[in-house]
Amino acid sequence: MYFLVLDGTSSEEIRDTQEGEDVTLECRFTPQTSRETLTYYWAKNNKQTHDNVAIGNVPLDSNYRLNYHPEKGIYDLLISNASYDRDNGKFECKVKAGGSGTNLHVQKYGLTVLTVPQPPEIAPAAHVTVTEGKRQELTCASKGGSPDPQVKWYREGE
């Protein structure tokens, strides 16, 4: 499913991919018939940074390629060998008017690179002797994983 965004408004499409897989983020727009110079670029945002990953027909990372056909309204970002550290986050395709910098088209993606969490660990130990009527606190946690894993407790046999 893809959303077409017009007139500078935007909504975000959520995409999932596995670590190591290839994924394509499509940017489709109405081709401009005017002779105005347009600027095309892809940017990536995460909690720490905002980086351009492609400008015009030039990808700025060796794992990124472009399907660049502005005359057809196509400016897709092809991500090879998706990596959680590099690719997990928000991507944005923009088509801007050259002179004014006005956004003519914006298309956003939230890309989640799925990774498996480490096995859960129970503290203080997996087998604990508890005295009836006494309080015993156990903690269950898992490291890693994207998206964040959900931990649920069950009694044995339930």
Automatic annotation (TrEMBL):
Topology in the lipid bilayer:
Single-pass type I membrane protein
Picking any one GO molecular function of the record gives: cell adhesion molecule binding
One GO BP annotation is: cell-cell adhesion
Quote the cellular component terms of the Gene Ontology held in the record: cell-cell junction; plasma membrane
The record's listing under PANTHER family reads:
ECHINOID, ISOFORM A-RELATED, NEPHRIN
Entry keywords, A to Z: Disulfide bond, Glycoprotein, Immunoglobulin domain, Membrane, Transmembrane, Transmembrane helix
At the top level, the lineage of the source is Eukaryota
Q: What is this protein called?
A: Ig-like domain-containing protein
Q: Where is this region: Disordered?
A: 137-158
Task: Name all Ig-like domain ranges.
Answer: 19-107, 120-158
The record, for SMART domains, names: IG
According to its UniProt entry, this protein's organism is Henosepilachna vigintioctopunctata
Q: Which SUPFAM superfamilies match?
A: Immunoglobulin
